[in-house]
Design a protein that fits this description.
Two copies of one chain form a homodimer. By secondary structure, the first copy, chain A, is an alpha/beta fold. In chain A, 50% of the residues lie in helices and 12% in strands. The relative contact order of chain A is 0.15. Chains A, B: Its main location: cytoplasm.
Chain lengths: 391, 391
């Protein structure tokens, strides 16, 4: 009987306060998170940002109990999914591979090899594809595969995105309906979908399908909710968790909350649409920061739809995904890891790869830029990184 | 039905080459591993040693495939033990808590709390108690419990050591017998028990029962082997993995190997007695370094008994331990974490706690000592740390 390994990929999160800095360093070291023209600056900048940013971030993790629950929840999801698949007669074992914290992808690959798995199904726990989430995880897995002959022998099938999965849509709709029904005036409640943002350039220049998938997904969910309840609620879709000076997908959730308050919304249901597990973005950013903004702007009843975690209908949807992936056409790791098109970094000036004039000019500019930033931050204790909200 | 959580404690090991340095830092930051008179020097010294030692250590991990298999094996042991306990009608879930690397004890505690466990059995995967292994893990768990009210509510029972466990002794004996039978002259083969060493002062000054338990354990195993085979093999017991300038338990394994070769031993069976999982000490130190010493000294047939890993008889022995712990008298975490007596650090001079003359004198001495070491190592690129084998 084929031994199937289901590799669940997610972001990872620090579980102890002292791990926050190293976690941030890993995150900002990824060129898919902060893009720089010369890779040589990646690690120093990652070190610099993570060092200066970690105390703020530590406070956020302190506020949710001292660490991220993501590993625990993801491992629970893995166990539940494994049981669901075995109940269907699929001899599956599930593994967890985090991108920026333990357990890392390397550990999962070692486990898969040791367990004599015949076929691997790669399932990112991001319903919507983005260069910076599923894309980064697929490419990490491909890097490990390139240098591991034993791993290369294994057949791999990938699930690239699954925002339209029936179980996922239905479980999101169910949880939203429960919150609507708990409102004083259910049909006057406003639904605020909030997704993790990405830089606008990812979508507009690099062709990241993320925004389209998020929009389609919100429509599918709202349609399901309306059909079930028999009435329509007003809704908005916005993006949260912006970092850095670049423009990200708009509207920003915090601005939408202010507008909704100003427009007289009294009962609000916030739906974290791109997160399937409770994490810092739901427990701290939405439940604490955004709630405060909402209440300050006149919203009285602030309700947040819980993340799916191990909601049985959702786990069943994941099992459907794995089952159809096994019987459907194979999507290779190369196809899944492929970027939509060449990412244009600086469209205003032609960029050339290699050690050439263009590179040297940019090298000088970036070095001066980073030097000035460091100078201000270190000497004056304030500067551009504080100004743009990175510190 | 009582939900039992079985907490398996072990050392932990880096799974990726880049994790070797941080792992060593964690290891040497533990005052149970390197004892200093003033805790303030602990972290700088840990940083210094781990930084300078990591490239040598990385090479060792490279030689065994790029990382430690300890997490993977320990999680396999956890799964097998869980199944064995459930087959006996005990509603058990097992958890892994590593002391110096991921998954850390904090993660296991979070999982235990989330799973609504009623009773925790703490089982160190060290058969023999030592201040620096089980002792350090018990105290780590106690520190976490002291600051966690939810965790304090949980009933905890500890297994302090289990070197005389029937399943453990029997499975060690079985594996040794297999190796003896594979020798050309089975009754002429020499058995070399090798245990992880500890500083002699732990045993002689602090009262660590480690050496006694190792000796008793070797006798139990050899007795079982003799009864089963019907003949006696010569055997020795020695200690490996010494680090630093201090005297450790003797004889040292490398010296014993030289002597055995000089005495004409041709077939040798090395038995890693204090390790229940394959790790750097078995796969690299014994299989590569000690094998080389043995072959260079005239030993022809060098055989190493495999670590127990998930050997069914061994897992069954662990299940016996958990079952009797649940029905037997309760050993609390405080009792398990207790040191045998106050550790005497510098018996040649009376040590007084607090900021007093004695502390200041030692402060000055240690600061000068560390400064001189750093100076030699950094400026000349060679010095005392190289000389004593730390680098």
């Amino acid at each position: 009987m084929t031994r199937v390994g289901v590799l669940l990929m997610n972001l990872g999160g620090p579980e102890r306060i002292k791990d926050v800095g190293p976690f941030l360093y890993n995150l900002f070291s990824d060129p898919e998170i902060i893009r720089l023209p010369l890779p040589i600056f990646q690690k120093p900048l990652a070190w610099f940002i993570s060092t200066l940013r970690s105390s703020k971030s530590q406070k956020a993790y302190q506020a949710i109990g001292g660490g991220s629950p993501l590993r625990r929840i993801t491992e629970q999801q893995a166990r539940e999914l494994q049981s669901a698949l075995r109940n269907r007669g699929i001899n599956a074992t599930s593994y967890v591979a985090m991108r920026y914290w333990h357990p890392f992808t390397e550990s999962a690959v070692e486990d898969i090899k040791a367990d004599n798995i015949n076929e691997v199904v790669v399932l990112p726990l991001y319903p919507h594809f983005s260069i910076s989430t599923s894309g980064s995880s697929f490419r990490e897995l491909r890097r490990l595969r390139e240098v591991d002959k034993e791993f290369q022998k294994l057949s791999i099938r990938c699930i690239r995105s699954w925002f339209d999965n029936t179980g996922y849509i239905a479980s999101m709709a169910e949880l939203i309906e429960q919150e609507i029904s708990s409102c004083e005036s259910p049909n006057a409640a406003h639904i605020c979908f909030t997704a993790h943002g990405v830089p606008k350039s990812y979508v507009e220049e690099a062709g990241d399908p993320y925004k389209d998938e998020i929009q389609d997904c919100a429509l599918l969910i709202i349609d399901k909710v309306e059909k079930s309840l028999g009435f329509s609620n007003s809704y908005t879709l916005s993006y949260q968790s912006r970092v850095g000076p670049e423009e990200w997908l708009k509207p920003y959730t915090e601005e939408v909350l202010e507008e909704l308050g100003a427009n007289g919304v009294k009962e609000l249901i916030v739906v974290p649409i791109s997160f399937v597990s409770e994490h810092i973005e739901t427990l701290q950013e939405i439940d604490i920061e955004y709630k405060k903004i909402a209440l300050n702007n006149g919203i009285i009843n602030f309700r947040r739809v819980k993340a799916l975690d191990t909601y049985p209908l959702f786990i069943n949807g994941l099992a459907d995904l794995v089952a159809s992936c096994l019987s459907g056409p194979e999507i290779s790791l190369d196809e899944a890891a492929k970027l939509p098109e060449k990412v244009k970094l600086y469209p205003q000036e032609k960029w050339q790869w290699g050690w050439n004039n263009s590179a040297e000019v940019w090298n000088g500019r970036v070095a001066m830029f980073v030097f000035i930033i460091c100078f201000f931050e270190l000497v004056i204790g304030n500067g551009p990184l504080h100004y743009i909200g990175l510190l």
